[in-house]
Write a structure and sequence with these properties.
single chain, 366 residues, alpha/beta, 6-stranded mixed beta sheet, 14 helices, 12 strands, 41% helix
Length: 366
């Protein structure tokens, strides 16, 4: 499982409640006091995809296996976390390990739930956490630049390029902007990722609203959406209280009726999961047969041999070709045989870039 999102935020914003509902477990203790989460909890969730059931029907598959994302519940950050306040250093290290950040913001009033800043202001809260992450990145880059400067003076070409990247990141951070807003030059993607910057990770803002605002949001979530749009980030409205209640219902029809009574077409968690999938730039390809119909997660732009490696490394090592059928053709033509008879099965080679929804069979020899 190589794709994960860290759930972050100030204490008492609903992070652990959201995580519990998201993973339908009680692994994360939800309590009305700061730092009730110390060690990060992890949980895997299935990515909703209506295509999978239709594929299974066409292939007459005995089972269905959806693709998954991993969510990590990281303890609440406070002002001064970058200097070790609260349990800051440990938490920052946990954030550094994830690929994307789901930032939970409190967008509801409730006198019974304390707020560490004594008032509800999600934009301020977002800036508080972002500032701590930027300060940590500044410290990390300033230390890194010292060694790069020495190497660059010795005409080390790689060091010169790295120093240019680091300096541009520093300029952005000193201007109060996260590193993810940096315009990268061609070929800099890998070097940028190697910097492991906290603010270089893609961000999804999750607006935790009261139950009455779950369908359309409120004034707080509207401000967050405006902020997210300005940053090129995503935002989702959700009521952790509703999701916690939904997670206790086992019957799907009961869940649907409950959501409809609140004016909701689907759970907020479904939106969060899909948004997290999109946030990481992921797509899905499928394998289908009598045994199972299965979804596989890859990064957009992945070529066929590397996509095959997600199933097994030997598939990449001995890759010969990929028999590929577009999802729509597979379903409309009644499965593999119908698509093949209609000339819709393609033989793709090593340079083929896998498309979202491709149904694939890999030919290999090891």
């Amino acid at each position: 499982m190589g794709f994960n999102c860290g759930i972050v935020g100030l204490p008492n914003v609903g992070k652990s409640t959201l995580f519990n509902a998201l993973t339908a477990t009680a692994n994360a203790e939800a309590a009305n006091f700061p730092f009730c989460t110390i060690e990060p909890n992890t949980g895997r969730v299935s990515v909703p995809d209506a295509r999978l059931a239709k594929l299974a029907e066409a292939a007459k598959s005995a089972s269905v296996v959806p693709t998954q994302l991993e969510f990590v519940d990281i303890a609440g950050l406070v002002r001064g976390a970058s200097k070790g306040e609260g349990l800051g250093n440990q938490f920052l290290a946990n954030i550094r390990e994830v690929e994307a950040i789901c930032h939970v913001l409190r967008c509801f009033e409730d006198d019974n739930v304390v707020h560490v800043e004594a008032s509800v202001d999600p934009v301020r809260d977002a800036e508080t956490v972002e500032t701590e992450l930027m300060l940590a990145d500044l410290e990390s880059l300033e230390k890194r630049s010292e060694g790069l400067i020495k190497r660059a003076r010795g005409q080390d070409k790689e060091a010169v390029q790295q120093l240019d990247l680091v300096n541009r990141c520093l300029d952005l951070l000193r201007d109060g902007k996260p590193a993810r807003m940096l315009e990268l030059k061609d070929g800099e993607g890998r070097a940028f990722r190697m910097l492991q910057l906290l603010t270089g990770k893609p961000v999804l803002y999750i607006c935790n609203v009261d139950e009455a605002s779950a369908a359309d949001g409120n004034e707080f979530s509207a401000k967050v959406a405006e902020m997210a749009a300005a940053q090129g980030a995503g935002s989702v409205v959700i009521s952790a209280a509703i999701e916690a209640e939904v997670s206790t219902l086992d019957d799907e029809e009961e869940k649907r009726e409950f959501l409809e009574s609140l004016g909701l077409e689907e759970t907020g968690l479904a939106r969060v999961i899909r948004a997290g999938y999109d946030l990481l730039g992921l797509i899905t390809y499928f394998t289908a047969g009598p045994k199972e119909a299965r979804a596989w997660t890859i990064v957009k732009g992945t070529k066929a041999p590397q996509a095959a490696a997600v199933i097994h490394k030997d598939f990449e090592r001995g890759f010969i070709a990929a028999e590929t059928i577009a999802y729509e053709d597979y379903v409309s033509l009644g499965g593999e045989h119908g698509a093949k008879d209609a000339g819709k099965m393609r033989q793709e080679g090593r340079d083929y870039v896998v498309q979202d929804g491709d149904v694939m069979l890999f030919r290999f020899n090891v």
